[in-house]
Amino acid sequence: MRRGSKAASGPLFPRMTIIGVGLIGGSLAMALRRAQLVGEIVGVGRGAANLALARRRGIVDRVTRDPGKGVRDANLVVLATPVGALAEVGEAIAPELMPGAIVTDVGSTKASVLRDLEPLIPAHAHLVAGHPIAGTEDSGAAAAAADLFEGSRCILTPTPRTSAGALAKVRRLWRATGARVIEMDAGEHDRILGAVSHLPHVVAYALVNAVTATRKDALDYAGGGFRDFTRIAASHPDMWRDIVLANRESVLAGIDAVLIELESIREAVDKQDGRRLAAAFTLARERRRALDKRTIKRPTIKRQTIKGQTTAKSRPGAGRKRKR
Q1: Over 70: is that where the pLDDT of 254 sits?
Q2: Read out DSSP for 209-269?
């Protein structure tokens, strides 16, 4: 089915439940509604105010704070909670899943998700683990936008137990959001994302704390470079706590690698070895510039709110700040 078209027999998923109607969960609901792949959308969450906002914005059709009740008769269940809460949520919804229901997630780690969830999903339902590599430092239903995934990547990590039919449907739904779908082993996913996503968040948090520990008013003098580098330190701390702990080994390996590089730079500074510093900085500069050549160029998104719905208009320029 082409993106934005609707099958003659009705939506791919007559009822979808989003557990965790925040930036990612809310944006997915909006994107799939726009693509006409879903019928009714049920929102589940702990915060009454956030659920009410999601309802007002038209992200979901009805809400509940009871996960088990929320997934009844749902063809698709999207788990968009912090990864540390997935096992608890899985236990709550497992008895209520209808035959043929597909459960997928948007967690930033995959090995831990599969370890926690796969044993809980009953034989009559299906689990397809996934991770859309998109986002901003903002959170909640207020930050959700239908275009969030356009031009991004979504990684699916099927296992030998994954249903081919369920995998095909999840692949189709992510493509409908404008994402490029890739499949890989869960362990490989965690090693890669540990280096390019989880580690940068740890470093950003550490840098902000280190700078403000030496002088509390230091941030008053921060320029664009510091703001750009540490933007992701404004991300939700509970979510990133769970991600870092769930991907512990990869994150520790990354921290060790950064410490080695910092120690090398420190030694060069201490010895006033300008040649060594220049070589390290030049290598990093070349590699960073190569990244720009591989990055998908996106239009700037100018947001408008029309009758409670967030829409977007494109105009030439650099893309919206996205978390990678």
Answers
A1: yes
A2: HHHHHH-TTGGGG--HHHHHHHGGGGS-HHHHHHHHHHTHHHHHHHHHHHHHHHHHHHHHH
Phi-psi category of 81—alpha, beta or left, where left has phi over 0 and alpha has psi -120 to 50? beta
CATH number at residue 78: 3.40.50.720
The reported pTM is 0.81
Average pLDDT over the chain, rounded to an integer: 88
In the chain, the number of structural domains is 1
Residue 236 has pLDDT above 70, yes or no: yes
Dist CA 55 CA 62 (whole Å): 7
CA–CA dist 94, 74 (Å, integer): 12
Question: Closest Cα to residue 243, out of 24, 5, 11, 56?
Answer: 24
Cβ count within 10 A of residue 82: 19
Q: Which amino acid is at 241?
A: R
Is beta strand 300-306 parallel, antiparallel or unpaired with respect to 126-128? unpaired
| Among 235, 45, 28, CA closest to 138 | 235
- Which residues span the domain enclosing 270? 1-324
Task: State both tokens at 192.
Answer: 């890669």
Tokens of 26: 């809310």
Dihedral, CA of residue 134, residue 138, residue 139 and residue 141, to nearest 10: -90
Concatenated DSSP letters of 250-267: HHHHHHHHHHHHHHHHHH
